[in-house]
Amino acid sequence: MSDYSRPKGTQDFLPEVQPYWEYVRTIVADLAREYGFERIDTPIFETTELFARGVGDATDIVEKEMYSFEDRGGNPITLRPEFTAGVVRAYIENGLRVQPKPIKLYSIGPIFRHEQPQAGRFRQFHQFNAEIIGTPSPLADLEIMLLAWDLYDRLQFRGLSFQLNSTGCPTCRPRYVDALVAHYHTHQDRICEDCQRRLQRNPLRVLDCKQAQCQPVIAAAPKISEHLCDDCAGHFSELLGYLDALGKPFTLNHRLVRGLDYYTKTVFEVWAEGIGAQAAVCGGGRYDGLIALLGGPETPAVGFAAGLERIIMVMEAQEVPVPPLPTPPVLIAHLGAVTRLEAVRLLAALREAGIGVQIAMSKSLKSQLRQADKAAARWVLILGGDELARGEVTVRDMASGSQQTISREGIVAWISEQLQHPA
Ligand code: ATP
Ligand code: MG
User: Fold this and answer.
1) Helix, strand or coil for residue 235?
2) Structural domain count, the chain
3) Is residue 37 domain-shared with residue 116, that is, in the same domain?
4) Which domain holds residue 246?
5) Of 317, 348, 365, which marks where a domain is finished?
6) How many of the other CB atoms lie within 10 Å of CB of 324?
7) Of 8, 54, 174, 294, which shows the fewest CB atoms inside 10 Å?
8) How many whole angstroms from 345 Cα to the centroid of ligand 1?
9) pLDDT digit string, tens, across residues 271-316
10) Average pLDDT score over the chain
11) What DSSP string describes 60-78?
12) What is the CATH number of the domain that holds 395?
């Protein structure tokens, strides 16, 4: 046992799980490109103030989940607990607003939240995040939702559906919040302590409380859909019309909320079958107020984020086949000190020709062949004393076990020629 273990809630991604990650990253990049999203990479850490404002002081993330510290210069720094605030900061700071709208950006990378680790919940995890900035059109909401949908569809997730709500806007939401708070005040004695606090700080959040005692109060709560202004109601019904036209299954979920003023209108999740407690595989929505809040011009925007660990968990559980990562097709085995010089020359010659190759590093042929097996090499090129003397190489086909002899001058061309044909 090592004296050190990884920090709670983190993971080592060993080579054996990398094919899953590579596969998911490839699908994400292909999909984003097909949808016309460009990649943006922002720093893994930002000023703490950015997240306090951009995620919101009254959120669980800012209240209790951030990895925040002072750096050596005494600057308050936070490891990003989500992508959007950093992307919006970059949008403003780099003057992207002068470009024709909408601006469609995606990111993929690690996210940090100090949560209680459990199945599918980590302290360092990874998200695929996408934003459409600069348009109020419900088509943008639709495109974000379709992008999220197609991601899971392409990964062969089954039983997909949208959970959907509108959280209104600063015009209509305050009236709804008043009605909600009034309802809760008549049930003050039946709700959990967290909800008592939420009522003060961030009342909409009572709707996604998971405590059993709060469920009847939530069930009887007024619904925001009955309080939307004309603009929000029109936006929502246009979006629903598109989803209907495409035959995408959705459930109106009155409990789906974001607690903060700059989240507006659409909020959604994608749910998938067979992933138990983590039924939501991703979440997103519109945030028309955020860019102005962070110092930019009034700019509407919509986005979503998907957790990649949960995707991979499901793929492993459902044994979704993923292609193996490519390995070098050739391994050079050598027998005896004199052959080694020739072996490294052959190694260099093959690489010069653009052929993937490794050289064995143990002395016995048996363990060299074992290495070839593990490396999934297609051929082992064996250089023994006899081969060296005759100017030849023995080629062992690892799949069939058959061997043949090829001249040293001809071997690079022979391998190249073979590689033109699929194995
Ligand atoms: P949850 O309700 O599961 O806590 P959330 O509302 O905090 O999710 P978002 O902030 O919307 O989630 O993040 C989007 C996605 O990121 C989630 O749907 C999930 O797939 C993933 N995610 C969130 N927190 C974690 C975590 N601690 N570990 C792994 N994945 C996570
Ligand atoms: Mg969470």
Assistant:
1) helix
2) 2
3) yes
4) 15-172+228-317
5) 317
6) 11
7) 8
8) 52
9) 987 665 546 889 999 999 999 999 999 999 999 999 999 999 888 8
10) 93
11) HIIIII-EEEE-TTS-EEE
12) 3.40.50.800
